Amino acid sequence: METLETPDSDAETYETIPWAQLAPPATPLLTRVGTWVVGALVAAVLTYLLVAVLRDEPKQAVVALDPKPAPVAAATSSPTAAPATVSPPVGGQDLGAIVAYSEADLMAIAPEEDRRVAEMRAVWFVTDYFTVDGDAQTAADVRSALPTESASVVPHDQPEVISYVEWAHPFAVQPDGPGHYVVDVAFRTLQGSAGSVLARQPVRAVRVRVAILADGSVAIRDLPEPVEIRTGVAEAVPPPSAEPPPEVVEQLTARIASHGTLGDVLGAGVGADGWRVVVAVRDSSGLSWPLVVRP
User: Fold this and answer.
1) Mean residue pLDDT across the chain
2) 211 or 235: whose pLDDT is higher?
3) Which residues, 6+ apart, have CB-to-CB distance to 139 below 8 Å?
4) Residue 232 within any structural domain of the chain
């Protein structure tokens, strides 16, 4: 670089300016990229913290105010009605949506279980009451279940007579006061003298009065009452007679297989509901039972 001296001044002057020495040193590329990455991470963290704070902030209820309040009524001597109170939600459910059950509704829920218990006890009692087989424990159970004035009249101390309940089934249950039920039970007995063949007796029915006590136990209130079972004969009109085709006969054989072997076809007809075939089915006893099959 050349230096020029002037006669008017002793200062040095430059023909060119050294710009490279005046500019700041250049930053490497990797350093700049790292700075950008750090800045982006810091911004992301701050944004996440801000969103979390806003999300956890409790929400305030917004109350809408009427810009034109209603005028205050003049005071009168009549009593002011108390404002209606609104119950707060319970467990996230509005109390106004909860069904209010009446006392009758609540009393109708538990009796369903009591009804089944009454049925069970009535069938149990009928089975033991009409069974006389010399078993001392059964006789004692019957007497202990009955009121004291009725326990002494039962015929369970006659060893020369046998009475056995083949089956018993309830067919009607009615409430008879708080905790009280009347249960109608149909049953059939096998009877005979000791050492003889027992004979099946006609189906009978009795009404048993049962009480569900306060401690949950169940009691018999009285001796059984006879109940009439009314039976009748329904008018049946068979469909017009017709000869069943082979495929219908095959279906008959499959349908009666669990009952015995197929015998004669006693009658057949086809109507709006399809085939109705009366067949004789022979079981293991050797007897043939007429049965109706609707394939």
Assistant:
1) 78
2) 211
3) 132, 154, 156, 157
4) no
For residue 188, the cross-strand partners are 167
Query: Using CA atoms, how far apart are residues 287 and 293, in angstroms rounded to an integer?
Result: 18
DSSP string, 83-107: PPP-PPPBTTB-GGGS----HHHHH
Considering the domain architecture, whether residues 191 and 268 belong to the same structural domain is answered as no
Residues 204 and 161 grouped into a single domain: yes
pLDDT recorded at residue 62: 46
Query: In this structure, are 195 and 268 located in the same domain?
Result: no
Residue 2 has pLDDT above 80, yes or no: no
Query: Residue 112 is part of a domain; what is its CATH number?
Result: 3.10.450.540
Question: Which pTM value belongs to this model?
Answer: 0.58
Q: What is the number of other CB atoms lying within 10 angstroms of the CB of residue 118?
A: 27
**Most confidently modeled range among 17-31, 68-82, 239-253:** 239-253
* Whether the predicted pLDDT of 275 surpasses 90: yes
Assess whether pLDDT exceeds 80 at residue 73.
no
Structure tokens of 39?
Answer: 């800045």
Sign of the dihedral defined by the CA atoms of residues 111, 116, 117, 121, in that order: positive
128 and 214 inside one domain: yes
Q: 201 in a domain, yes or no?
A: yes
Q: Based on the fold, state whether residues 222 and 265 are members of the same structural domain.
A: no
Name the residue range of residue 171's domain.
Answer: 108-226
The backbone torsions φ and ψ at residue 290, rounded to the nearest 5 degrees and listed phi first, read -70, 125
Q: Which residues lie below 8 Å from residue 233, measured CB to CB, with a gap of 6+?
A: none
| Both tokens assigned to 150 | 């009725």
Asked whether residue 58 is assigned to any structural domain, the reply reads no
Give the residue, 42 or 67, on which the prediction is more confident.
42
Q: Residues with Cβ < 8 Å from 269, sequence gap 6 or more?
A: 238, 239, 240, 241, 242, 275, 276, 277
Claim to verify: residue 211 and residue 113 sit in the same structural domain: yes
